[in-house]
Amino acid sequence: MSKIKTVFQCQACGFTSPKWLGKCPDCGAWNSFSEEKQDTKGARSSPGNTGADPQPLSAVTGGTEKRSRTGIVELDRVLGGGLVSGAIILVGGDPGIGKSTLILQAMSHIAERAGTVLYVSGEESPEQIKLRAERLSIHSDSIMLLPETLVENILATAREQKPAALVIDSIQTIYTEELTSAPGSVGQVRESAAKLMMFAKRSRIPVFLIGHVTKEGAIAGPRVLEHIVDTVLYFEGDRGHPYRILRTVKNRFGSTNEIGVFEMTDSGLREIANPSELFLSERPLDVSGSTVIASMEGTRPLLVEIQALVSPTTFGMPRRTSMGVDFNRVNLLVAVLEKKAGIHLGGMDIFLNIVGGLKILEPAADLGIVAAIVSSFREVPLDSRTFLFGEVGLSGEVRAVAQSEARLKEAAKIGFKRALIPRGNAERLKGDFGLSLTGIRNVEEAIEYIRA
Q1: pLDDT tens digit sequence for 319-340
Q2: Who's near 16: CB < 8 A, 6+ residues apart?
Q3: I want to staple 232 with a disulfide (CB 3.0 to 4.6 A). Which of 13, 62, 250, 372 is the partner?
Q4: Among 323, 299, 326, 296, which residue's Cα sits nearest to residue 309?
């Protein structure tokens, strides 16, 4: 007869220990061990030979996946052009950020075009989902609601209904009878996701999984969950701003680091077709410490405003605060300004912010950060019709960046007239796109341009 024994399992990586540990020796997470019950009758039997034989790559037919539209252009963008049959998609984000709202809006469009959609809710009752649907003006008989948490019952219903898409909200509430641990544990999340993945691949029905995130912002549960799925989307946004960013982290059917931009309204999420104009709509003109950079998010150029505030410190230790950019990167650029440009910032508080709640990670924002800090320090405003981009090295040189033509075209379309760009990019351009281009080699030349 099988016996049930108790072990302690890390909820971050799945490492097991016979006793509780404060720190996981495998992944290094603190206070991540919880008590789990395991069946000791042995591993499950292997499914055996599936009858598949090896075949040469040249003999494999297909190679192209037919995509279907979700009805939301920004969602199709981050998915790589549309929804692939049999794909399993994981959507994560902070509580209340709009994950369920986005998926419900997408399912409404899919139900109108492709047929029945099965929406499985393990957290909310059908009445709660109905209230959200009424707020979004969704009235569809093709969206079937199923309040269920047992994965075997969910799959049985899905095989019977044969829906155009299956939604699991959320994967942390789903469990399987094969394990005795509680829902949300490492084993339950892993096994439930694996069963849903096999169902998606065999039935060619796309499956959406909504996942919780930890306080660090990562998908809760084992890391293997992100390896099982085909696409991982993160829904980001600041509670103080109405804008939401849907970012691709992993995509087997398209490029990664694509973003979709939305605005949260009373009637749901609204797509932003031209986010650059939106982020610059309230930009103050002719003020010091404000610059505009041309950043790339995947294949999409974005023009965003960087604001800097430099003021004498009233404490013994000057403060450095950055929002939307890497804190260590800001400190590095401040050191370059002090060493190579002779601008003494040791007794200054420096506050830096990316307007709109965006997070800019690419080094092409370096020149904009430097210009904003110098503009605020010198109390010299930068021309409101000038934008800039470029990577700054430790020697003070300004290095060329990729996709400069896409950045320049986007800025010219919005109405900018002048650009401060790396000399390497300026020498390789085949046209000026109607802009007055100034190529610079180092931060000293950039500072001279700001003074002029």
Answers
A1: 999 999 999 999 999 999 999 9
A2: 7, 8, 9, 10, 36
A3: 250
A4: 323
Dihedral of alpha carbons 26, 29, 34, 36, sign: negative
Amino acid in position 37 = K
Tokens 């404490």 correspond to what residue? Answer: 315
Token duo for residue 381: 């405003």
Number of H helices, E strands in the chain: 12, 23
**In DSSP terms, which residues pair with 39 in a beta bridge?**
4
Would you say 210 is a known binding-site residue? no
Q: Is 94 annotated as a binding residue?
A: yes
Look up residue 433 and give its DSSP letter: T
Cis peptide before 170 (omega within 30 of 0): yes
Top pLDDT among 227 and 4 is at 227
pLDDT tens digits, 371-405: 999 999 999 999 999 999 999 999 999 999 999 99
- Alpha-carbon span 333 to 396, nearest angstrom: 9
User: Letter for the amino acid at 391?
Assistant: E
* Residue 397 DSSP class: B
| pLDDT of residue 201 exceeding 60 | yes
Residues 6+ apart with CB under 8 A from 233: 78, 89, 90, 91, 92, 246, 247, 248, 249
285 near 382, Cβ under 8 Å?
no
Residue 375, CB half-sphere, CA atoms under 13 Å: how many? 26
> Residue 188 has which token pair?
């339950």
| First vs last C-alpha separation in the chain | 85
d(CA 316, CA 45): 67
Residue 243, beta-bridge partner list: 263
pTM: 0.79
Establish whether 98 is an annotated binding residue. yes
Cα–Cα distance between 199 and 215 in angstroms, integer? Answer: 31
Q: Distance between CA atoms of 208 and 390, rounded to whole angstroms?
A: 38
Confidence grade of residue 120 (pLDDT, cut at 50, 70, 90)? very high
On whether 284 is known to bind a ligand per the annotation, the reply is no
Question: Worst-scoring range by mean pLDDT, 214-223, 226-235, 271-280, 395-404?
Answer: 214-223
**184 labeled binding residue:** no
d(CA 311, CA 280): 25
The bridge status of strand 207-211 relative to strand 83-84 is unpaired
Give the separation between CA 80 and CA 299, rounded to whole angstroms: 11
Express each pLDDT in 129-172 by its tens digit.
999 999 999 998 999 999 999 999 999 999 999 999 999 998 98
100 carries a ligand binding annotation: yes
